[in-house]
Design brief:
This protein is an alpha/beta fold. The chain has two domains: 17-104 and 378-460, no CATH class; 120-139 and 161-225 and 237-271 and 283-329 and 337-364 and 466-512, 3-Layer(aba) Sandwich (Rossmann fold). 40% of the residues lie in helices and 10% in strands. Strand 3, helix 10 and strand 4 form a beta-alpha-beta unit. GO terms for molecular function: rRNA (adenine-N6,N6-)-dimethyltransferase activity.
């Protein structure tokens, strides 16, 4: 009998890769095919002739597509009367397949003004979006019942079961949490007062630290009054009179874990911050902590991951990232760590580099754009206005490019001449000297539908880029021997950066079980965040 043939080398290597490594490689291949689309700035639509750079077979169909049809292409739901070229359908299908599932938006397109599932004292000063995120990241919700039908609401008096951070606390026997980039301390207050955990809140802005401490004192004062007067009805969950400890300091990504804090910027008058990864009074007592960062911006996220990998004091972490365009990428001066890539797996792949524009695109809100397309929102004209304005500025002064102008948050409600009269002075130009009523300007404004179609293609790639960045972080932790997973925890309509990276030194199966099946705020079936089709990038 003839010997079995040996797999060809590249196929053997492919078979030996993990699913996450194969996904990262496939994403990079897709991005390399559409690099010009990925790296294009929409404001250059007219100055650089971006429409002509699209595949010729795509241009007629996209030019005649209605916003509702574009929304169908973006969401994969089809569109009335749309007949797309097969190559465009293949591009859209590949982008959706490679992007990590973001959860099913469901429910209202906006979070409720106030969450009834959060204690009234913990809702003060907290915007609805942040309330939603705090509840999903650290809330106490009803436990899964194997005898209850899967789509029925929880009974109103169900006993509470721990959610993500509290599950991590139980699984690791840690009751100390370090909240990095704590801002005004909203999450820290919930974890301390609401869940009774010992919390250290680290924030680089000393002004925000002072504000957080003032909010803590306000809550303690109100809590004392409430206890003295008693309740007509018991609260959702009694609060613990235990405030978080606030620390003003910045992370030094290159420092050893034992001395990773730098003074705040600008430096404050107080004493130097103690390292919260050490025990009481700064002595190492062998105790471990949980680390969390809610919307850790730019290089803060990879710095946290590197400290987690180096620090035996950290048992587990839950990280939500944002502002990918602020990541440090090659080349960097010697000794300066990269924010992307972190893993050797992604760094070894040809074409893994991501431009500033690509990383900025990864921060877009795809679900919000789809809603605008379906509703024919006037916001859709904003990109066309800015592209026309860029063309006028460059015609007047070619050296003025990408000036970062902000003519106003309600630009979509203006006529273009009104918009231009606000924007041109920001570029140092006199509107009186610019022909705003010319035939050329009118011709550009009539191409708004093309600008919207071009933006839609970019929106398709945005979740793919975010997936690659987060896969790189997951693979980095796997390479260090940690257990980790990515899961969509927030409603993407409320919070576009809704993917949470969870990592621990012990298996995570029990921690993650059922998280994607919980209602988004605890009990209301009409507000449920259905995640029956979600998946996670498995715990390993």
């Amino acid at each position: 009998m003839a010997a079995a043939p040996h797999p060809i080398p590249h196929l053997q290597q492919h078979l030996e890769q993990s699913p996450e490594q194969r996904r990262a490689a496939d994403i990079i291949r897709l991005l390399m095919l559409y690099r010009p689309l990925l790296d294009a700035f929409v404001i250059d639509f007219f100055t650089d002739g971006l429409w002509a750079q699209l595949p010729p077979a795509w241009q007629p169909t996209l030019a005649s597509a209605t916003p509702v049809q574009l929304a169908g292409l973006l969401g994969g739901h089809g569109g009335p009367g749309a007949v797309w070229p097969l190559s465009l359908l293949a591009f859209a299908a590949a982008a959706r397949a490679l992007a990590f599932p973001r959860g099913c938006p469901g429910g209202s397109p906006h979070p409720p003004c106030q969450s009834s599932h959060l204690h009234p004292l913990l809702r003060r000063h907290v915007k609805p979006k942040k309330q939603h995120e705090i509840l999903r990241l650290g809330k106490v919700g009803a436990p899964p019942n194997p005898l209850r039908p899967p789509n029925s609401p929880q009974p109103p008096n169900s006993p509470p079961s721990p959610q993500l951070l509290q599950r991590l606390s139980h699984a690791t026997s840690c009751e100390r949490v370090v909240d990095i980039g704590a801002g005004q301390g909203h999450l820290s207050r919930f974890l301390a007062f609401g869940l009774g955990l010992s919390v250290t809140a680290v924030e680089s802005d000393g002004r925000l630290v002072g504000l957080a401490e003032r909010f803590d004192q306000e809550l303690l004062g109100e809590l004392g009054k409430t206890r003295g007067l008693g309740h007509r009805r018991p609260p959702l969950r009694p609060l613990t009179p235990q405030a978080p400890q606030h620390v003003a300091g910045r992370l030094d990504p290159a420092a050893p874990w034992g001395e990773f804090l730098l003074p705040p910027n600008p430096p404050g008058p107080g004493p130097a911050a103690r390292n919260p990864l050490r025990g009481p009074e700064g002595s190492e007592d062998g105790g471990q902590v949980l680390v969390t960062g809610l919307h850790a911006c730019g290089d803060l996220s990879p710095a946290l991951l590197c400290h987690f990998a180096r620090s035996p004091a950290v048992a587990a972490m839950a990280l939500v990232a944002c502002c990918y365009m602020k990541l440090s990428t090659a080349p960097q001066p010697p000794g300066c760590p990269l924010g992307y890539p972190l893993s050797t797996s992604v760094a070894a792949l040809p074409g893994h580099q991501l431009s500033y524009r690509a990383r900025e695109a990864a921060c877009h809100a795809l679900e919000e754009y789809e809603v605008r397309l379906r509703g024919g929102s006037p916001h859709l004209r904003a990109h066309c206005y800015r592209a026309v304005l860029e063309s006028l500025i460059r015609a007047a002064d070619p050296s003025k490019r990408h000036l970062g102008l902000q003519p106003g948050r309600k630009a979509h409600a203006l006529s273009f001449p009104q918009y231009a009269h606000l924007g041109l002075p920001l570029a140092g130009l006199d509107p009186a000297g610019v022909p705003l009523d010319s035939a050329a300007v009118g011709a550009m404004l009539e191409q708004q539908h093309k600008v919207v179609a071009f933006c839609t293609l970019g929106q398709l790639l945005a979740p793919v880029v975010e997936t690659l960045i987060l896969l790189d972080r997951l693979l980095y932790l796997r390479e260090q021997g940690f257990h980790c997973a990515l899961l969509p925890l927030f409603n993407p309509r409320f919070s576009p950066r809704n993917l949470v990276l969870v990592a621990a030194r012990t298996p995570l199966a029990t921690v993650l079980a059922g998280l994607d099946k919980d209602s988004e705020d605890g009990d209301s079936s009409k507000d449920r965040d259905s995640s029956s089709e979600d998946e996670d990038l498995g715990e390993g």
